[in-house]
User: Fold these one by one.
Assistant:
Number 1:
Amino acid sequence: MIDAKQFASLQKMSSKSFHQQKNLIKNVMAGKKTFCPECDQLLVLTLPDTGEPSKLNKAPGISCVKGCTDIQLDFSS
């Protein structure tokens, strides 16, 4: 069973992780050079398919070349 202190610690870590990922997404979408926190490779934004054949066939989102960062995003028009 988890006690209140452990739960508060888990909640704090989860909140910190959420905000770090949110800021990472915001920076990449703003066009700022942002690097993967794991491998220091440049993060790339992949936009939804525009109907043209894609060579990558990747889901829309943000990822690095190695794949250690892979954030899938849902775009709506």
Number 2:
Amino acid sequence: MLRKTIIFLSISAIFLACGKDPYDLSDKTPPPGNQNENPSVPVKGEFAEGADISWVTEMEKDGVKFYDHNGNETECTALMKETGFNSIRLRVWIDPEGGWCGKEDVLAKASRAQELGMRIMIDFHYSHTWADPSNQKTPAKWADLALGELASEVGNHTKETLQVLKDNNINIEWVQVGNEINSGMLHPVGKISNNADNFAVLANKGYDAVKSIYPDAKVIIHRSDGHKANECKWLFNLLKDSKVKYDIIGLSLYPSWWENNGWCDWRPIVNDCMTNIKTLTATFGKPVMLCEIGMPVWEPQMSKEAIEYILQETQKIEDCHGVFYWEPQTDGVWKPSAYNALGWNAYDKGAFKNGRPTVALDPFKD
């Protein structure tokens, strides 16, 4: 996910002028939540309309406040449910700086979703920080381990994290073993182009660890660029040949970027992705989920049209099980100076303005 905004380098100066006023950092106390005394019970099997809000606790610490449609201050997870989301996705990092997306932080966020009756996906990056197609570094404390030892650490980390959630009565429905693993994970040992069988050992250890704690949870193998059919086919054929165990194919889809002094047309890219989903389900016999989507924060109306179309088209596909928007609660303006340490205030594909949802998220209400 870290690399999603590189395409805006040539126009970043233009959009920096559109930045909002700094947030008030004086109040470090997280905002009060809207209490749902009778939360709905999540229904497994229904179409998941989800939001990854992994930044939310860090945003609260930085003084960010969220408001419902009546202008009342509210807690972000409750606002996600009010906006129409029925599911929450949360990433997990290993010994992260500041504790963000570590075990305790994930538990705090998952507990909010659980209390609201929302379904939960856990996304293991197996990294101290972002893992994506161009960044799959092995954590420093695992750097010198051989394959077998590294696999054991994957299993232990997965079990320990999920056990914390289970001990606190958190229901987990989906678990990603790796994030955007186009090139594998835990490089160089788990780099797919070097040795797909090594990746299989690591991924299968993660799969077994998930099932040992949450036997009914669905394990997702997730890659980026869901519209690129040939690249997807290449990867999942390799995983099939290497006997990687998983239940669901996860894809990312970011269908609009700036080129030639304008936004590219998102519709052909989305259509390519829909065709690819149908091909993947038919070829590999697995359901598919869009684990990440995102659109430009500066174009809420265009974003609304794209999201509406994505939701309509995915729900027509029997074996597509859901769509998750990546960090919709942000409204940052992309900053070149922040590129190597992407934070919530430098992410340009959110769908909020001044703590409130824009029209971009209206399709999730339907």
